[in-house]
Design brief:
This protein is mainly β. It is 0% helix and 56% strand. The strands form four sheets. Strands 1, 2, 4, 5, 8, 11 and 13 form a seven-stranded antiparallel sheet that branches.
Length: 130
Amino acid sequence: MKTISFLTIVSITMLSTSSSAQQSVATALFQTDLPDIEGREAVILEVEYPPGVASSSHRHNAHTFVYVLEGIVIMQVAGSEPQTLVAGQTFYETPDDVHSVSRNASDTESAKILVVFIKQKGAAMTEPTP
């Protein structure tokens, strides 16, 4: 199995609920082809949300697994209730879900999540939705 390891900063569009224009920072930690699942790859990111930062509505077109490392985040997919998650809790999105809410619940503390994508090889990890 071929494994590709890299460290890169990935830009994700975020909105801030505070007056300053802050953004989350996603750091790519790992990527590898999944040879027993033709055409698929796994990607792992660490995403840090500054205080008060939230993403705009988007989709991942991937099986998306979230693990909260630090802080408190609020996650929601369209058609479901929002979930407030603390360190050690998890969240899952299907490839068809629209991720309507992804935000740091605190206006004073940062939050950090680990994200694992199982997706089509070479496809974009995030796409904005209307």
